[in-house]
Amino acid sequence: MPRQPDRNTILKGTLDVLVLKALSRAPMHGFEVTEWLEREAGGSLGLDDSAVYQALYRMEKRGLVAAEWGVSEKNRRARYYELTRQGRAHLKAETERVLSYADMVRSILVGGESAA
Amino acid sequence: MKRRRWLRLKSTDRQLSEQDVIAELEAHLAERMERLKASGMSEEEARAEAERRLGGVARARYALVRAAWDRDIRLTLRERVGSVADDVRYAVRLVTREPGYALVVIVTLALGIGANATMFGLLDRLLLSGPTHVKEPAQLHRFYASTRSQQSGELTTFAQLNGVAYEAFRARVASVEHVAAYRSQKLTLGSGVDARQLAAIGVTSGFFDLTGVRPVIGRFIAPSEDDAAGERVVVLGHALWRSEFGGDAGILGDVVQLSGNGYRVIGVAPPGFTGVELGRVDAWVQIAHAAGRDRWTTEWIGLYIPIVARLRPGASAERAAAEATAAWRSITEGRPGKMEEGYITLAGIGADRHGNEPLEARVTRWLVAVAAIVLLVACANVANIYFARGLMRRREIAVRLALGISRGRLIRLLLAESMVLAVLGGLAALAVAYWGANVVRTVLLPHVDWTTSALNARVLVVAGGITMLVGVLTGLAPALRASRTKAHTSVASSLRAAQSSRTAGTLAALQAAFCVVLLIGAGVFVRSLWSVNAVDLGLDADRVLAASFEWDTPAHLTDEERAAQSDRRRTFYREAAQRIAAEPGVEHASVAIGSAFGGAFYASIRADGVDSIPPMPGGGPYMSAVTADYFATLGTPLTRGRAFRVSEGAGTDPVAIISRSTAEALWPGADPIDRCVYIGDGAEIPCRRVVGVAADTRRFNITEEPALQFYVPLGQQPAWMGGFTVLARTGVRPDVMTEPLRRVLHEMEPSLRFVAIQPFNEYLEPQRRPWKLGAVLFTLCGALALSIAVIGLYSVIAYLVVHRRHEFGVRMALGAERFDVITLVLRRTLALAGIGVAIGLAVTVLAAPYLQPLLFETQARDGAVVAIAAAALIAAAVLAGVLPAWRASRVSPTEALRDG
C-alpha cells in the first residue's frame, strides 16, 4: 500500500490526542489502542504501528498516561496504559483546540470554493 | 552519559528498558498475527504483514528503545523527587502536629544560626569584603617605613610618610601599577551656626584608578589637577549629594564653599564608597591643596600621609618592598636621624598605623569562633531531642521496617524532618541576624559607613549553607541510630535507652564545656573593658567637652592686620571661656594651648639640681599653656601646691606646674615646690618657679605611658605655640550642652565659620571599642549558649528521670526518702556539669596564650573569672536539674513499680 506522506504529517501532530481519546474509555494495551484507532478511522491509519507506541511512550514520559504490566484476556502479558488526571485534562483542552482548528480550515477551504 | 551518572542508574537499567520494549513488541506482533491468520493468511504471510505494518522490526525496535530509555529516566527522576516531596510533606505534618517540640527546636536553631550570620556579616565587612567599590582589595598595600629611634634605639614602624616618598615610590617602584596618597581632613560646609563639618579626604588623582571605582555622575580628579596651582575641585560623596544637594545632577559644575574656599563640583562618588578605609567620606578633594604647599612632592615637610599602591598582577609584595626601600634610601640620604638606615615594608590596606592587624579585626576572628561554639551547643541540644524522639517513635519505625521500607529510605525520611526544622530555624534566624547586625552596627561599630543591608546576598548565602549543614549535622546520627531499631523491641529497648542516655549525657557534658569556655572568654573581656574604663585618666572624662574653632579669614592681610587679628582672637578665647562658664549647666571653663587628649608641645627643659632630664617611656617634656581654671575644669587634682591664679599670665613672674611623674623623675622624694625649671636651650633663661604638682594626664591615648608634662600660665608660653582650645566642665551630660554652646559662641562672634564641640568621652570611645566589642558579644553569646545548654540539660535529666521511674519506685518502696531521690538526680546532674567544667577549663588553659594579646591588663587565665564561670555553670546545672529531681521524688512507688 503506498504511503500517503501528507496524511502522515497531519496525522502525527494529532496522534497524541487520538491516542488519549482511545484511552479515555478504558485502560488498553498497545495493540488494543492501534485496533481502536483503525476501527474508528474506518480502515488503515496510514502510519506505522510503531508510531502509536512512540506516542504512548512520549505521553508516559510527560505524565499524561501511566503504564503497568498486566495480563490480557488471552492470558498474555501485556503493558496496559491508562489516562492520568493530567492526561484527561490535556485531552479535553487539545480536543477543543484541534476541532476548532479543523473547523477553521474547513470553513476557509469550503467557503473559498464558493467565493471562487 | 552525564544524566545517567547523576541519576545513578546502572547500565543494566538500559537493558531493562530494552527488554520491556522487546516484550511489548512481541505481544503486539502476536496479536496482529492472530487477527491476520483469522482472516485467512498463513503463518509466514501473517508475520510478514505484521512486521510491515509495524514499520520493520529492527527500525521499530531501535526507535522505541531510545524513546523507552528516555521515558524511564524521566519516570525514575519523577519518582525520586516525588518521594522526597512526600517525605517533606510528612515532616511538615509531624511538625504541625507537635508545635511545642518544633518550636523549641526552631528557636534553638534560630539563635545559633542567627548568631553565626551576624558574626559572618561582621567578619565580611571588617576582613573579607574589603572597602565598598574597591576592586580586588587583596592587591592593595600600604607602605610602612621602619626606622630606629635616635633616643632609644628602638625600631618603630609607621605608616605616615610624605609627598617626597610618594613621588619616589611612584617613579621607582616598578612592581606596582598605581600609587596614591591621601589625607583625612575636616572641611566646613557653610558658615556660622548652621555650618556642617564634613569628613573629607584629599587624594592624588591616581587614587580613583587605584581603587577601580567609577563615578555616578561626572568624573574624578584628573592628573592635571594634582597641581596645587590650579582650580580647587571636589567630588561629592553620594550620601552628602543626596542630603545637602537633593541628589540633583545639575550640581555638576557648580562651586561650593568649603572652609572658605570655592570648590567646583566635578563628580559624585557611588554610594558606600569610603576609599580604602571604612569610615564615611563626604567629599574628595585634591591632596595638594590639603598639603597647603605648592611643592609638596619635592619638599620634605611633616605631612604624615599614608601611601597605598596596587601590585601589578604577578608581582610580589617583597619585591615591591625592596624597590621601595631603595627609593627610600635615596631620598633620605643625608637627612637627620639616620633615616637612610630604615627600610620599607608592605602590608594589606586593612592594617593599622603600625602595620598590624587592627585589634577590632582580631577580636572579630575570635567572635566568629564563639558564634560557631554557640551553634554547636544548639546543635547538640537539638540532636539530643532527636535521639529522644527516635526512641519514642520506635514502634512506628519498627512497623515501617516490617512493611518493607529500606534503611536508606527510612534515614531519608527522618532526615527530612531535621531538614525541615533546620530550614524553619534558618528562616527565623534571619530575624535574629537582622537584630544582631543592628546592635553591631549602631552600638559597637558606629564609625563604619554601613551601606549594604544587614541581610545582604553574602550573608544570606552563608546562612543558607549553615542551615543545610545544621540540618544534616543534627539529624544524621539520630536517624542512623533510629533506623537500626529492631522490629522486636522489648529487650533491645532498654539497651537502646541506656545507649541513648549515655549519648545524651555526653552531649550535655560537651555543651557544659563549651559554655564554660564562652563564659570565661566573656569574663576576661568584660574585665578588660572594666580595666580600660577604670584607667586613671587624671580627669573627669564624663563631664568635659572641648571646643575648637575655624575662622572665616580674609585671604590677604598685611602683617599689621594679622597681628591685630591674633590679638582680637586671643581676647575672644578668654571672653568665650568666661561667657561659657556663665551658662547654666556649665561649672567651669578655661582656655588652653595643648591639653589632655588634645596634644601638647615638645619643649626641652633644664631643672635645678638635675644634671640630665631622665627619659620617660611616654616621652616628653610636653608643655601646655593654660588658664587658672584649667585643672578645675578637667577635674585634675593638684597633689601639691596650687593652681595658677587668674592674675598670672603675660608679664607676671614665670611660674610652672608639673605633673606628678615629672616631679618624681626630676626630684625624687623631695618637695618640688619653689624649685626652678628652665624652658628652652638659651643662656639667659629666667627661673620658672614650680608652684604646684598635678596628677598625670594623657596626650592622646588611654593606653599611653607616663610622660614628662608641665604647664605654664596662658600668656607665658613661647610665641611659636598656637592652637587654642576652650574647655568646659558641665554639670549635666556634656552632649546635652553641645548645641547650646555652639549657638552661644556663634552669637558672640559672627566671623566664626565653625565651632567643633566634642565631649571627651566621644573622643575616647573609639579607643575602648575593641574591648567593648569583645565584652558585649562574648557575653551575649555566652548567655545564649548557657540558656540553650540549661534547656538541653533539663531535657536530658527529665528524660533520664522518666526512664528510671521504675528504679526510683523501687528505691522508695525500699525505704528511700524523697530527699534521697532528689540528691540522686542532682548528683547525676552535677556529675555531668563537673565533667563539662573540667573539659572547659582544659580548653581555656590551652587557648589562653592566643587570647592574651587581645586583653587589657587582664590575665586570660584570671582566677576570679574562671571561678565565677564554673560557679555559674554549676548553678545553672542545679537549676536545670531541680525540677526533674523534684518530680522524680513525687513518683508514687506503687505506680512506678506497676509501670516497670
Describe the model:
- The complex is a heterodimer of chains A (116) and B (900).
- The radius of gyration of chain A is 16 Å and the shape is globular.
- Chain A contains 4 helices and 3 strands.
- In chain A, α1 packs across α3 (49-62) and α1 (5-25) packs across α4.
- The mean pLDDT of chain A is 85.
- The N and C termini of chain A lie far apart (35 Å).
- With 116 residues, chain A is of the alpha+beta class.
- The longest helix of chain A is centred in the last third of the chain and has 31 residues, at 85-115.
- The two termini of chain B are 60 Å apart.
- Chain B has 900 residues and is α+β, with helices and mostly antiparallel strands.
- In chain B, β3 and β4 (196-203) form a beta hairpin.
- Helices cover 54% and strands 15% of the residues of chain B.
- Mean pLDDT of chain B is 86; it is low at 1-6.
- In chain B, the strands form 2 sheets. In chain B, strands 12, 13, 14, 15, 16, 17, 18, 19, 20, 21, 22 and 23 form a 12-stranded mixed β-sheet that branches. In chain B, strands 1, 2, 3, 4, 5, 6, 7, 8, 9, 10 and 11 form an 11-stranded mixed β-sheet that branches.
- Chain B contains 24 helices and 23 strands.
- The radius of gyration of chain B is 39 Å and the shape is globular.
- Classes of the chains: A alpha+beta (116), B alpha+beta (900).
- Chain A binds chain B through residues 29-31, 34, 48-51, 53-54, 57-58, 60-61, 63, 72, 74, 76-79, and chain B through 20, 23-25, 27-28, 30-32, 53-56, 59-60, 63-64, 67-68, 70-71, 74-75, 78.
